[in-house]
């Protein structure tokens, strides 16, 4: 073979070998980039899992555990935030249990039974295992934030009724405010403040008030608003609240800062009952519907289970407006969150999925 021809062949082979080497390295580098991207921690890759096996009602965070009642039989359970360590707290069958109002320390609970429209309320003490029936005229109840007391609306024989405070069993009561308003939503957001709100509807205006327990001063804190529901901040100086038009449409989420006397609209659309406050008093975690059906009347249809949503989950700083998505629902499972809770370290977001009634957690 002529030398020139041989040299040409060797040169061509060398060029092919070098080119192959660079092509191989190029593809290898691209593959590495894809793999590394998958391994980079992302707020959208948080794990979501069912932590109850059956539908539940009214969960509560108690230290490093979550407690709840089963809807089907009223038996109580607790588990870790990831669903492990499941323990049965009570084997008693509670037929027709509709709500369970836990004390802040998780040691007591007010059971509310609804037997074909007949409402009965009982205080149960887990330590003594004693149950005490509450008076029939005691209506909407909330626990004090830092003491073993409750606030409620008491209906007397006359038109006038009272907002009252008592021991959890209804004894040692004190009337703090007489009123003719009925069906009030009552909260106890701080030790010296009681919050009242009229029954929410997108078709009628609702109003929010406070009672200062140091001087019994009664104040209107949110003017008449269609679609009004509220969620008080941990320091009780801010209110997350919803607003609609007079037809229960065009939902907005707003924040009232009572200390600054300001109201601002947030750049998200959801109901306050689909949110939970962080302990920093500046951050909220919210389940935000992907879309809201056009004919939906809020909050009426949601409270009556006449509509449902497919939620994504966000963390929002209400001061800066910064939003961080912590879970995006891309699977076949639909998550319509309610009763949102945060673990003490705020590393788990816990909620009831309204579509199946199960308790879920997202590791944040």
Please characterize this protein's 3D structure:
The structure is a single chain. Helix content is 11%, strand content 44%. The protein has 2 helices and 28 strands. The strands form 7 sheets. The chain has a 4-stranded antiparallel sheet with strand order 1-28-27-26, with no helix packed on it. It has a 4-stranded antiparallel sheet with strand order 2-3-4-5, with no helix packed on it. The longest helix has 37 residues, at 3-39.
Number of strands: 28
Summarize the biggest pleated sheet: 4 strands, antiparallel
**Per DSSP, what share of the residues sits in E-state strands of 2 or more residues?**
35-45%
| Count of separate DSSP helical elements | 2
> What is the average per-residue confidence, as pLDDT, rounded to a whole number?
88
What is the N-to-C order of secondary-structure elements (H for helix, E for strand)?
HEEEEEEEEEEEEEEEEEEEEEEEHEEEEE
Which bin fits the share of residues in helices?
10-25%
Rg on CA atoms, Å: 28 Å
Distance between the termini: 71 Å
Q: Give the strand order, joined by hyphens, for the main sheet.
A: 1-28-27-26
What is the 3D shape? globular
Class of secondary structure makeup: mainly beta
Indicate the low-confidence ranges by residue numbers: 1-43
